[in-house]
Amino acid sequence: MTAYQELMAFQRETEALSQIAGRLGWDQETMMPEGATPQRAEEHGAMANILHARRIDPRVGDWLETAVPADDVARANLRHIKRSLDRASKVPARLAAELAKTTSLAHRTWAQARADEDVPAFLPILQKVVDLRKEEAAAIAGNADPYDALLDDYEPGATGASLAAMFDALRPRLVALRSAILDKPAPQTLSGEFDEAAQLALSEKLALAFGYSVANGRIDKAVHPFSSGSGLDVRITTRTSLTDPFNCFYSTVHEVGHAAYEQGIDQAHLLTPLGRGVSMGVHESQSRIYENQLGRSRAFTSWLYGQMRDAFGDFGIADEGAFYATVNRVSDGFIRTEADEVQYNLHVLLRFDLERALMAGDLAVNDLEAAWNDRFKADFGYAVDKPSNGVLQDVHWSEGLFGYFPTYTLGNVYAGCLHQALRQAVPELDDQLAQGDTSQATGWLRTHLQQFGGLRSPADTIQHATGNAPSEAPLLDYLDAKFGDIYGL
């Protein structure tokens, strides 16, 4: 075997173990018994130790020095493995295991604190998570910005400063659009209750309509919907609300976007560094374009309206036009995952600024709730009513995912770019969506983006698919046009 072949055989085993570690996390969110938390934390720590040892194995460095890439795929694999080695070599094994163990415990602590509306119960272990992440960031960053070291794990090549500049360009038009919309009469809301079993049945129908393969996945319920896995085993979760079936439907479509990316990657890349999404921003572009530009379009909601009438009978919305406005209703709310397209990014920018301040030492963990509440009041004009609608609503910080939140807005920016290109490539798209047929849209995304996995850098992935460098302009133009039409602006 050549050095490259030996390295890839070793890497395949590492990728397989990483998938097993991810399955432990999936099980913890969906099926694990409550009393298993302490043992699961030990299991996570053990897996982290094994994976860390493999990533810094001296043989990896030796193979990298002598491996000769034969093509672009080999060059991309070597680039990813070298990047992983460089990062992992800077993090002590003790720290990697402690992070895995602590975040596993913190997740359960967060879930209970959220249920009890008890912020003080969560803060001590959050402080430990923050301290460990800061230690890790400092080890990786050296003299560079520690937050950038964390961000780079989710969006390679991005920096806090570059994202802040992009977000600063987004904010004025988002705020202006929000203000103009809230001055207009609001569309009708749903009323009454919607049977949970019927919601889940239609949710599965939506997953299939967007191309999700249940032969290589499954749909379960979780407090916080997520997608897990890659290749031949990609699982999603959703949630239900008796009074808000859109929560279930669009959580499902969103997670199917993530899952479709993983299922759409060329199987030649299975269990290699290219066999998963290249970044969280690109990943989010898939979930957001599935959920919003496709799933909340006028054309697709006309089909969904008929499906809901079949499932629930007359549910109080007179026609397809009124239903489209209801689906896209802009209204006050606390929850990021339930926010409309206009306000969603304002929720993300709040989190981005707070976590940068935490990592920089400019904000103390004990002051986080007050800082959150102050910022929310300033951005949205009303006060947080309870912690589960505020600082405790998201799972991310309990899992140590600092640097993750900005990729949500970056994903929206990427989705805007992709949607613009998709519309140009498939001019008859609305005719198909009105029949509940997403195959040309999802096929275009699979052909131009999903199949390549981690072959290119995130920015190059978007440019290759669209022909243009990423820009916030297409997203802002899309939002102005869509909501200007709905609200008569």
TrEMBL record:
Which keywords are on file for this protein?
Carboxypeptidase, Hydrolase, Metal-binding, Metalloprotease, Protease
Q: Which reaction does it catalyse?
A: Release of a C-terminal amino acid with broad specificity, except for -Pro
Enzyme superclass (EC): hydrolase
Kindly give the InterPro entries that the UniProt entry links to this protein: Peptidase_M32_Taq (IPR001333)
**Keyword Metal-binding in record:** yes
Name the EC number(s).
3.4.17.19
Origin superkingdom: Bacteria
Physiological role: Broad specificity carboxypetidase that releases amino acids sequentially from the C-terminus, including neutral, aromatic, polar and basic residues.
Family per record: Belongs to the peptidase M32 family.
Record's protein name: Metal-dependent carboxypeptidase
Origin organism lineage: Bacteria, Pseudomonadati, Pseudomonadota, Alphaproteobacteria, Rhodobacterales
